[in-house]
Amino acid sequence: MAREELPASRGLRVLTFLHSFEPGGVERVALRLHSAWVELGADARLVMGREQGAMRAEWPGLAYEVLDRAGITGPLETLWMIASLPGAIRRHRPDVLFCAGNSYTVVSVAMKLLLGRRCPPIVAKISNDLMRPDLPRIAMPFYRLWLRIQGRRLDRIVAIAPAMAQEITEMMGVAPDKVPVIDNPALSNAELEHLAALPRPAHVGPARRFLAIGRLAPQKNFLGLLDAFARIARAGDRLTICGEGPQRAALEARAARLGIAERVHLPGHTFPLDDELARADALVLSSDYEGLPTVVLQAYAAGIPVVATDCSVSMASLLGHGRFGALVPPRDPQALAQAMDTVLDHPFQAEAAHAEARRFTVDLAAHRYLRAMEDLGPSAALSRAPRFQFR
Protein backbone atom coordinates (compact mmCIF):
# COMPACT_ATOMS: atom_id res chain seq x y z
CA MET A 1 0.00 0.00 0.00
CA ALA A 2 1.41 3.36 -1.01
CA ARG A 3 2.28 5.77 1.75
CA GLU A 4 0.75 9.24 1.81
CA GLU A 5 3.17 11.99 0.82
CA LEU A 6 3.93 14.70 3.38
CA PRO A 7 6.17 17.73 2.91
CA ALA A 8 9.62 17.25 4.41
CA SER A 9 10.04 20.94 5.16
CA ARG A 10 7.52 21.07 7.98
CA GLY A 11 8.71 18.34 10.29
CA LEU A 12 7.48 18.65 13.87
CA ARG A 13 8.99 17.46 17.13
CA VAL A 14 6.24 15.37 18.72
CA LEU A 15 6.26 14.38 22.39
CA THR A 16 4.06 11.49 23.57
CA PHE A 17 3.59 10.92 27.29
CA LEU A 18 2.39 7.68 28.92
CA HIS A 19 2.13 6.51 32.51
CA SER A 20 3.78 3.10 32.08
CA PHE A 21 4.02 -0.07 30.01
CA GLU A 22 1.12 -1.65 31.87
CA PRO A 23 -1.14 -3.38 29.29
CA GLY A 24 -3.84 -1.16 27.88
CA GLY A 25 -5.33 -0.45 24.48
CA VAL A 26 -4.63 3.29 24.69
CA GLU A 27 -0.98 2.72 25.55
CA ARG A 28 -0.48 0.06 22.89
CA VAL A 29 -1.90 2.28 20.14
CA ALA A 30 0.25 5.19 21.33
CA LEU A 31 3.38 3.03 21.23
CA ARG A 32 2.42 1.87 17.73
CA LEU A 33 2.06 5.45 16.54
CA HIS A 34 5.27 6.62 18.20
CA SER A 35 7.24 3.74 16.69
CA ALA A 36 5.74 4.44 13.26
CA TRP A 37 6.68 8.12 13.50
CA VAL A 38 10.25 7.17 14.41
CA GLU A 39 10.37 4.72 11.50
CA LEU A 40 9.18 7.48 9.18
CA GLY A 41 12.12 9.58 10.35
CA ALA A 42 10.14 11.94 12.57
CA ASP A 43 11.70 13.64 15.58
CA ALA A 44 9.35 11.82 17.96
CA ARG A 45 10.06 11.73 21.71
CA LEU A 46 8.49 9.38 24.28
CA VAL A 47 8.23 10.18 27.98
CA MET A 48 7.15 7.46 30.44
CA GLY A 49 6.06 8.10 33.99
CA ARG A 50 7.63 4.79 35.02
CA GLU A 51 8.98 1.89 33.02
CA GLN A 52 7.23 -1.02 34.71
CA GLY A 53 4.68 -3.09 32.79
CA ALA A 54 4.37 -6.24 30.72
CA MET A 55 4.28 -4.37 27.40
CA ARG A 56 7.87 -3.21 27.77
CA ALA A 57 9.04 -6.55 26.38
CA GLU A 58 6.91 -6.01 23.27
CA TRP A 59 8.95 -2.97 22.22
CA PRO A 60 12.65 -3.93 22.26
CA GLY A 61 15.04 -1.14 21.44
CA LEU A 62 12.49 1.57 22.16
CA ALA A 63 14.09 4.88 23.25
CA TYR A 64 12.29 6.81 25.98
CA GLU A 65 12.79 9.02 29.01
CA VAL A 66 11.57 7.88 32.43
CA LEU A 67 10.30 10.43 34.92
CA ASP A 68 10.30 8.08 37.91
CA ARG A 69 13.18 5.60 37.86
CA ALA A 70 12.22 4.14 41.23
CA GLY A 71 8.79 3.11 40.00
CA ILE A 72 6.97 4.18 43.14
CA THR A 73 4.34 6.44 41.58
CA GLY A 74 1.78 3.85 40.45
CA PRO A 75 -1.11 4.93 42.69
CA LEU A 76 -0.26 8.60 42.13
CA GLU A 77 0.83 8.39 38.51
CA THR A 78 -1.45 11.16 37.23
CA LEU A 79 -0.31 13.65 39.87
CA TRP A 80 3.31 12.63 39.28
CA MET A 81 2.92 13.15 35.54
CA ILE A 82 1.36 16.59 36.04
CA ALA A 83 4.22 17.60 38.35
CA SER A 84 7.03 16.15 36.22
CA LEU A 85 5.96 16.62 32.61
CA PRO A 86 6.63 20.39 32.46
CA GLY A 87 10.33 19.70 33.03
CA ALA A 88 10.35 17.18 30.18
CA ILE A 89 8.60 19.69 27.93
CA ARG A 90 11.29 22.27 28.69
CA ARG A 91 14.04 19.73 27.95
CA HIS A 92 12.59 18.40 24.68
CA ARG A 93 10.96 21.62 23.44
CA PRO A 94 8.31 19.79 21.42
CA ASP A 95 6.23 21.53 18.78
CA VAL A 96 3.21 19.33 19.57
CA LEU A 97 2.13 17.19 22.52
CA PHE A 98 0.27 13.98 21.71
CA CYS A 99 -2.39 12.99 24.25
CA ALA A 100 -3.00 9.28 23.72
CA GLY A 101 -6.53 8.95 25.11
CA ASN A 102 -9.26 10.05 27.48
CA SER A 103 -7.35 9.00 30.58
CA TYR A 104 -4.57 11.46 29.69
CA THR A 105 -6.69 14.56 29.00
CA VAL A 106 -6.44 15.64 32.64
CA VAL A 107 -2.67 15.83 32.25
CA SER A 108 -3.07 17.77 29.00
CA VAL A 109 -5.44 20.35 30.49
CA ALA A 110 -3.08 20.70 33.48
CA MET A 111 -0.19 21.46 31.08
CA LYS A 112 -2.25 24.23 29.48
CA LEU A 113 -2.99 25.74 32.89
CA LEU A 114 0.53 25.38 34.29
CA LEU A 115 2.50 26.47 31.22
CA GLY A 116 0.09 28.94 29.66
CA ARG A 117 1.41 30.25 26.36
CA ARG A 118 4.58 28.19 26.79
CA CYS A 119 2.54 24.99 26.41
CA PRO A 120 2.85 23.45 22.95
CA PRO A 121 -0.34 22.74 21.02
CA ILE A 122 -2.00 19.48 22.06
CA VAL A 123 -3.48 16.84 19.76
CA ALA A 124 -5.71 14.54 21.81
CA LYS A 125 -7.13 11.22 20.67
CA ILE A 126 -10.56 10.39 22.12
CA SER A 127 -10.14 6.71 22.87
CA ASN A 128 -13.46 5.98 24.59
CA ASP A 129 -17.06 6.79 23.85
CA LEU A 130 -18.02 10.02 25.62
CA MET A 131 -21.33 8.68 26.84
CA ARG A 132 -20.67 7.18 30.26
CA PRO A 133 -23.62 5.06 31.42
CA ASP A 134 -21.50 3.77 34.29
CA LEU A 135 -21.38 7.17 36.00
CA PRO A 136 -23.96 7.97 38.71
CA ARG A 137 -26.57 10.53 37.71
CA ILE A 138 -25.31 13.03 40.29
CA ALA A 139 -21.91 13.05 38.59
CA MET A 140 -23.17 13.76 35.06
CA PRO A 141 -23.32 17.60 35.25
CA PHE A 142 -19.72 17.69 36.46
CA TYR A 143 -18.67 15.23 33.76
CA ARG A 144 -20.34 17.33 31.03
CA LEU A 145 -18.59 20.44 32.37
CA TRP A 146 -15.26 18.59 32.29
CA LEU A 147 -15.84 17.68 28.63
CA ARG A 148 -16.45 21.35 27.82
CA ILE A 149 -13.27 22.36 29.60
CA GLN A 150 -11.33 19.85 27.52
CA GLY A 151 -12.95 21.18 24.36
CA ARG A 152 -11.71 24.70 25.18
CA ARG A 153 -8.16 23.68 26.09
CA LEU A 154 -7.24 20.99 23.53
CA ASP A 155 -6.12 22.22 20.14
CA ARG A 156 -7.14 19.22 18.03
CA ILE A 157 -9.42 16.40 19.16
CA VAL A 158 -9.14 13.27 17.03
CA ALA A 159 -12.18 11.04 16.49
CA ILE A 160 -11.07 7.45 15.94
CA ALA A 161 -14.12 6.59 13.81
CA PRO A 162 -16.55 8.75 11.81
CA ALA A 163 -19.48 8.07 14.15
CA MET A 164 -17.55 9.60 17.05
CA ALA A 165 -16.95 12.99 15.40
CA GLN A 166 -20.47 14.33 15.89
CA GLU A 167 -20.52 13.12 19.49
CA ILE A 168 -17.27 15.00 20.17
CA THR A 169 -18.42 18.26 18.58
CA GLU A 170 -21.71 18.20 20.50
CA MET A 171 -20.54 17.03 23.92
CA MET A 172 -17.25 18.91 24.01
CA GLY A 173 -18.60 22.04 22.35
CA VAL A 174 -16.02 22.33 19.59
CA ALA A 175 -16.22 23.24 15.91
CA PRO A 176 -16.17 20.34 13.42
CA ASP A 177 -12.95 21.63 11.84
CA LYS A 178 -11.21 21.02 15.16
CA VAL A 179 -12.11 17.30 15.03
CA PRO A 180 -10.23 15.35 12.36
CA VAL A 181 -11.33 11.74 11.88
CA ILE A 182 -8.42 9.28 11.85
CA ASP A 183 -9.38 5.62 12.02
CA ASN A 184 -7.90 4.00 15.12
CA PRO A 185 -4.47 2.50 14.29
CA ALA A 186 -5.19 -0.85 15.88
CA LEU A 187 -2.97 -3.04 13.69
CA SER A 188 -0.30 -2.91 11.04
CA ASN A 189 -0.68 -4.38 7.57
CA ALA A 190 1.85 -7.04 8.52
CA GLU A 191 -0.14 -8.01 11.62
CA LEU A 192 -3.33 -8.23 9.58
CA GLU A 193 -1.77 -10.67 7.17
CA HIS A 194 -0.21 -12.64 10.02
CA LEU A 195 -3.54 -13.05 11.81
CA ALA A 196 -5.31 -14.01 8.59
CA ALA A 197 -2.78 -16.81 8.08
CA LEU A 198 -3.16 -18.36 11.54
CA PRO A 199 -3.87 -22.10 11.32
CA ARG A 200 -7.32 -22.94 12.68
CA PRO A 201 -7.31 -26.17 14.77
CA ALA A 202 -9.97 -28.67 13.83
CA HIS A 203 -13.13 -28.22 15.86
CA VAL A 204 -14.21 -31.58 17.29
CA GLY A 205 -17.69 -31.95 18.78
CA PRO A 206 -20.27 -29.33 19.74
CA ALA A 207 -18.16 -27.54 22.37
CA ARG A 208 -17.75 -23.81 21.78
CA ARG A 209 -14.74 -21.66 22.58
CA PHE A 210 -15.45 -18.05 23.55
CA LEU A 211 -12.65 -15.51 23.91
CA ALA A 212 -12.57 -12.13 25.67
CA ILE A 213 -9.56 -9.80 25.82
CA GLY A 214 -8.98 -6.79 28.03
CA ARG A 215 -7.85 -5.45 31.37
CA LEU A 216 -9.63 -7.09 34.28
CA ALA A 217 -11.33 -3.85 35.27
CA PRO A 218 -14.95 -2.74 35.82
CA GLN A 219 -15.17 -0.99 32.42
CA LYS A 220 -14.93 -4.37 30.67
CA ASN A 221 -17.80 -5.87 32.73
CA PHE A 222 -16.31 -9.35 32.72
CA LEU A 223 -18.44 -10.13 35.78
CA GLY A 224 -21.49 -9.72 33.54
CA LEU A 225 -19.80 -11.88 30.91
CA LEU A 226 -19.42 -14.69 33.45
CA ASP A 227 -23.13 -14.40 34.28
CA ALA A 228 -24.00 -14.64 30.58
CA PHE A 229 -21.68 -17.57 29.95
CA ALA A 230 -23.11 -19.49 32.91
CA ARG A 231 -26.59 -19.22 31.40
CA ILE A 232 -25.69 -20.93 28.12
CA ALA A 233 -22.58 -23.02 28.83
CA ARG A 234 -22.90 -26.55 27.49
CA ALA A 235 -20.69 -29.52 28.26
CA GLY A 236 -17.21 -28.75 26.93
CA ASP A 237 -17.83 -25.03 26.34
CA ARG A 238 -14.95 -22.82 27.42
CA LEU A 239 -14.48 -19.11 28.09
CA THR A 240 -10.99 -17.60 28.05
CA ILE A 241 -10.45 -14.05 29.31
CA CYS A 242 -6.97 -12.78 28.44
CA GLY A 243 -5.80 -9.87 30.55
CA GLU A 244 -4.74 -8.82 34.02
CA GLY A 245 -6.08 -6.29 36.47
CA PRO A 246 -7.68 -5.51 39.82
CA GLN A 247 -10.80 -7.65 39.31
CA ARG A 248 -9.04 -11.01 39.05
CA ALA A 249 -10.05 -12.16 42.54
CA ALA A 250 -13.64 -11.03 42.01
CA LEU A 251 -13.83 -12.87 38.69
CA GLU A 252 -12.42 -16.07 40.17
CA ALA A 253 -14.90 -15.86 43.04
CA ARG A 254 -17.85 -15.24 40.69
CA ALA A 255 -16.86 -18.15 38.43
CA ALA A 256 -16.67 -20.47 41.46
CA ARG A 257 -20.04 -19.26 42.76
CA LEU A 258 -21.65 -19.84 39.35
CA GLY A 259 -20.17 -23.34 39.12
CA ILE A 260 -18.19 -22.60 35.94
CA ALA A 261 -14.67 -22.27 37.38
CA GLU A 262 -13.47 -25.34 35.47
CA ARG A 263 -14.70 -23.86 32.19
CA VAL A 264 -13.24 -20.37 32.64
CA HIS A 265 -9.55 -19.74 31.92
CA LEU A 266 -7.80 -16.55 33.10
CA PRO A 267 -4.27 -16.78 31.66
CA GLY A 268 -3.32 -13.16 32.49
CA HIS A 269 -1.62 -10.79 30.08
CA THR A 270 -1.12 -12.74 26.85
CA PHE A 271 1.22 -11.73 24.04
CA PRO A 272 1.07 -12.63 21.30
CA LEU A 273 -2.60 -13.64 21.10
CA ASP A 274 -2.08 -15.96 18.13
CA ASP A 275 -2.94 -19.23 19.87
CA GLU A 276 -6.03 -17.85 21.61
CA LEU A 277 -7.37 -16.25 18.44
CA ALA A 278 -6.68 -19.38 16.42
CA ARG A 279 -8.63 -21.55 18.88
CA ALA A 280 -11.58 -19.22 19.41
CA ASP A 281 -14.97 -19.64 17.78
CA ALA A 282 -16.17 -16.16 18.73
CA LEU A 283 -14.88 -13.04 20.46
CA VAL A 284 -17.08 -11.50 23.15
CA LEU A 285 -16.84 -7.79 24.06
CA SER A 286 -18.87 -7.14 27.21
CA SER A 287 -17.73 -3.57 28.00
CA ASP A 288 -19.87 -0.80 29.45
CA TYR A 289 -18.10 1.76 27.25
CA GLU A 290 -15.34 1.69 24.64
CA GLY A 291 -14.00 3.74 21.77
CA LEU A 292 -13.08 1.51 18.86
CA PRO A 293 -11.77 -1.73 20.39
CA THR A 294 -8.63 -3.20 18.87
CA VAL A 295 -9.71 -6.70 19.89
CA VAL A 296 -12.67 -6.57 17.48
CA LEU A 297 -10.35 -5.83 14.57
CA GLN A 298 -7.99 -8.61 15.67
CA ALA A 299 -10.94 -10.98 15.60
CA TYR A 300 -11.88 -9.88 12.09
CA ALA A 301 -8.32 -10.39 10.90
CA ALA A 302 -8.30 -13.89 12.41
CA GLY A 303 -11.64 -14.72 10.81
CA ILE A 304 -13.89 -15.06 13.85
CA PRO A 305 -17.27 -13.38 14.55
CA VAL A 306 -17.94 -11.00 17.42
CA VAL A 307 -20.61 -10.57 20.05
CA ALA A 308 -20.43 -7.04 21.44
CA THR A 309 -22.33 -4.69 23.67
CA ASP A 310 -23.48 -1.40 22.20
CA CYS A 311 -20.72 0.35 24.14
CA SER A 312 -19.83 3.01 21.58
CA VAL A 313 -21.51 5.05 18.88
CA SER A 314 -19.17 3.24 16.49
CA MET A 315 -20.09 -0.33 17.37
CA ALA A 316 -23.07 -0.84 15.05
CA SER A 317 -21.03 0.33 12.07
CA LEU A 318 -17.98 -1.64 13.18
CA LEU A 319 -20.07 -4.83 13.32
CA GLY A 320 -21.23 -4.20 9.77
CA HIS A 321 -24.80 -3.81 11.04
CA GLY A 322 -24.97 -7.54 11.70
CA ARG A 323 -22.66 -8.91 9.01
CA PHE A 324 -19.78 -9.59 11.41
CA GLY A 325 -21.61 -10.50 14.62
CA ALA A 326 -24.28 -9.52 17.11
CA LEU A 327 -24.85 -6.29 19.01
CA VAL A 328 -26.62 -6.27 22.39
CA PRO A 329 -27.37 -3.64 25.06
CA PRO A 330 -24.70 -3.11 27.74
CA ARG A 331 -25.26 -4.64 31.18
CA ASP A 332 -27.85 -7.14 29.92
CA PRO A 333 -26.53 -10.64 30.72
CA GLN A 334 -29.61 -12.32 29.25
CA ALA A 335 -29.23 -10.57 25.88
CA LEU A 336 -25.50 -11.23 25.88
CA ALA A 337 -26.09 -14.91 26.69
CA GLN A 338 -28.62 -15.29 23.88
CA ALA A 339 -26.28 -13.68 21.35
CA MET A 340 -23.39 -15.90 22.46
CA ASP A 341 -25.64 -18.95 22.18
CA THR A 342 -26.61 -18.24 18.57
CA VAL A 343 -23.70 -16.32 17.03
CA LEU A 344 -22.26 -19.42 15.37
CA ASP A 345 -25.61 -20.18 13.73
CA HIS A 346 -25.29 -17.13 11.47
CA PRO A 347 -23.00 -16.82 8.43
CA PHE A 348 -19.86 -14.77 8.99
CA GLN A 349 -18.53 -12.70 6.09
CA ALA A 350 -14.85 -13.24 6.76
CA GLU A 351 -13.48 -11.47 3.67
CA ALA A 352 -15.61 -8.39 4.28
CA ALA A 353 -14.56 -8.36 7.95
CA HIS A 354 -10.90 -8.51 6.95
CA ALA A 355 -11.43 -5.58 4.57
CA GLU A 356 -13.05 -3.62 7.41
CA ALA A 357 -10.03 -4.26 9.64
CA ARG A 358 -7.68 -3.03 6.93
CA ARG A 359 -9.04 0.52 7.35
CA PHE A 360 -7.63 0.69 10.87
CA THR A 361 -3.89 0.35 10.34
CA VAL A 362 -1.00 2.34 11.73
CA ASP A 363 0.45 2.37 8.21
CA LEU A 364 -2.29 4.83 7.26
CA ALA A 365 -2.84 6.61 10.57
CA ALA A 366 0.77 7.62 11.31
CA HIS A 367 0.86 9.90 8.26
CA ARG A 368 -2.57 11.32 8.95
CA TYR A 369 -1.69 12.25 12.53
CA LEU A 370 1.45 14.04 11.38
CA ARG A 371 -0.55 15.94 8.80
CA ALA A 372 -3.10 16.97 11.46
CA MET A 373 -0.24 18.15 13.68
CA GLU A 374 1.46 20.17 10.97
CA ASP A 375 -0.98 23.05 11.07
CA LEU A 376 -0.45 23.43 14.83
CA GLY A 377 3.32 23.82 14.84
CA PRO A 378 4.61 27.22 15.99
CA SER A 379 6.04 29.58 13.41
CA ALA A 380 9.51 28.83 14.78
CA ALA A 381 9.17 25.28 13.49
CA LEU A 382 8.83 26.57 9.95
CA SER A 383 12.15 28.43 10.07
CA ARG A 384 14.16 25.47 11.31
CA ALA A 385 16.12 23.36 8.89
CA PRO A 386 14.28 20.09 8.24
CA ARG A 387 15.21 17.53 10.91
CA PHE A 388 13.81 14.56 9.03
CA GLN A 389 12.43 13.46 5.71
CA PHE A 390 9.45 11.21 5.07
CA ARG A 391 9.85 8.23 2.84
Automatic annotation (TrEMBL):
Gene Ontology terms for molecular function: glycosyltransferase activity
CDD domains: GT4_GT28_WabH-like (cd03811)
Keywords from the named record: Transferase
Pfam family, one: Glyco_trans_1_4
Residue span(s) of domain Glycosyltransferase subfamily 4-like N-terminal: 23-185
PANTHER family: BLL3647 PROTEIN (PTHR12526:SF636), GLYCOSYLTRANSFERASE (PTHR12526)
Record-given protein name: Glycosyltransferase
